[in-house]
Amino acid sequence: MTLDQKIGQMTQPERMHVSPSEVKRYHIGSVLSGGGSCPGDNRPVDWVAMNDAYWSASMEEDDDHLAIPVLYGVDAIHGNANVLGATIFPHNIGLGAAGDPELIERIGRITAREVRAAGVDWTFAPTLAVAQDPRWGRTYESYSEDPGVVGEYAGRIVRGLQGGGVVGAGGVGDFVGLGPEGILACAKHWVGDGGTRDGVDQGDTVVDEEELRRVHIAPYVPALEAGAMTVMVSLSSWNGEKCHAHRYLIQDVLKGEMGFGGFVVSDWNGLDPLAEDYGDAVAMAVNAGIDMVMVPEAWKAFIAALRERVERGDVPVERIDDAVERILRVKFVSGLFERGRPWGRRGANGSSFGSREHREVAREAVRKSLVLLKNEGGVLPLDKGARILVTGRGAHDRGRLCGGFTVEWQGVLGNDRIEGGTSVWEGIEAVAPGAVLGGVGGSWDVEGVGEEEGVGGTQGEGEEGDFDVAVVVIGERPYAEGLGDIREESPVRPGTNHLPAGAGVLKPYGDTLELAALHPEDLATIRGLSGRGIPVVAVLVSGRPLVVDEELAASAGFVVAWLPGSEGGGVADVLFGDFDFVGRLGMGWVGGEVLFPWGYGLRLLGSEV
Ligand code: BGC
After folding, report:
1. Are residues 539 and 470 in the same domain?
2. I need a labelling partner for 66 at 20 to 30 A (CA). Which of 11, 100, 116, 211 fits?
């Protein structure tokens, strides 16, 4: 291979910034979709067409170009949730509460099938972060604050996604490839992303090496043992040193000591902050062991800079050869060369995408992820014959249930763009003929139903005597990454996020974890109802533990639903007692006066799980 061909393999632009003909001309090895970056009408058929065009360009062979299939990557972190009509699973924090590794493997298999339906071969998942501070905006991407739980899931999700058998420690020659329905997994973000000080996204993880290994590195071992062939580097630092330039962590620990034989990909513009001079940054990252560089827009500058640094001798040719060998090894071992064009592949645009069968597994996951924190006077289970008021901003809003990384990077509100599935209200309505949705007709006529407010409030002139009980769905609106952080505003370095160019300030979600301060309307709704003698069952939709002391006190029942995804009906299954609560907190509930330890969760019968 020529140097240009090799560097091209190491380059990963974003689809908006690279055409199929450029993929061929620059020998591009991989293309990605950033969160919410979707072709055409965002149907599987549009994705297959796009992938087919990139693939065909990459496979044209002539004197200057080798036929090497391009690898396309997406963030299918809770189902193939970028694509309209996908089955959307609970985010990881909910799956961690479910405590069911076998379920995780099934979710991996279904996710792979729905990713393949779009003609895609690679997901940037699983996130193996071990979140230590709920102020972190990516807490919901973490299964648990406990490395043991994350480690227990890590191998199962990789096996589910890749569909292959058990292999060795990810060392050279250990891979057995993908199963017929598998896609490549990517363990991320190496390493310590969940341990940053004050939960600041892309921040600094200040821990000694023993703790880094015990908490943050440990879950990677089962992921590699299960055959994970790619690893993404974290945008965070370890003790002040950026992971993207951390030769010890990447070359020595991951590739050396742990024998990882796959390839390491950088995160979104992760080279930019490494040095003032871009060429220096490129040399640092590649010499530290990064094999493929996610450089969404300015990929031509990357190619030029790397070429120059190789020619100057700053980056040894042996390092380039090693990087390319790793990328090609993964492409060979995963069977990419044999898969043929995306249009012709088994499952492309397949009918199982968003199918009933897939949604049933997502619904099971919702049921198992719910954590019951309070059940005063046995308000739960609800009686299907009862007169039930269903209200709150999340009651009939599937977008809100899905959270970030759903259709858009920051997620969406409302029902329109979450096709299929059920809201909490739809789940209740299906089984309880006496249920009424507040704000949409019925005797509880609530004013001011806006996008942000949603259904809810206490303004309405309800005839409270009409209701035996109220289900109030409260909590957070969707967010992703640093925009979900709880902290002060801070300047943002352009390009280090999917933020629009010119966004100078990173606006976090808020500066407190207290729900009553973030969304006072939730407490007002609960109090308005309970003050009128209607017992309230609060259902909290949230990516993390929040301080909810007042909401808890004002409610008879309190259920943590996390970010359940498209199948909100699973909440109803459990509220009516068709299934018991089995979920336990994967993260301790701290911060307020009311504390629930890690592992806490009630059952309907009143005892702890
Ligand atoms: C995130 C990664 C993600 C990548 C591609 C980054 O901003 O940190 O987790 O895989 O974008 O969308």
Report:
1. yes
2. 116
Do residue 289 and residue 381 come from a single domain? Answer: no
Q: Which of 15, 123, 124, 405 most suits a substitution to test ligand 1, by most atoms within 8 Å of the C-beta?
A: 124
What is the mean predicted confidence (pLDDT) over 213-236?
A: 97
Contacts of 225 (CB under 8 A, 6+ apart): 155, 166, 167, 168, 169, 170
Please work out whether the CB of residue 122 comes within 6 Å of at least one atom of ligand 1. no
Q: Is 587 within 8 Å of 595 (Cβ atoms)?
A: no
29 and 138: one domain?
yes
Burial of 600 (0-12, 13-18, 19+ CB in 10 A): middle
- Model-wide pTM > 0.90: yes
405 lines ligand 1 (CB under 6 A): no
Residue with tokens 């790397």: 306
pLDDT of residue 593: 85
Query: Using one digit for the tens of pLDDT, what is the confidence trace for 283-336?
Result: 999 999 999 999 999 999 999 999 999 999 999 999 999 999 999 999 999 999
Span 111-122, mean pLDDT?
98
Which residues span the domain enclosing 258? 3-344
Task: Determine the residue of 267, 294, 483, 493 to mutate for testing ligand 1's pocket, defined as the one with the most ligand atoms within 8 A of the Cβ atom.
Answer: 267
Q: Are residues 493 and 391 both part of a single domain?
A: yes
Number of domains in the chain: 2
182 with 246, same domain: the answer is yes
Both 276 and 382 in one domain: the answer is: no
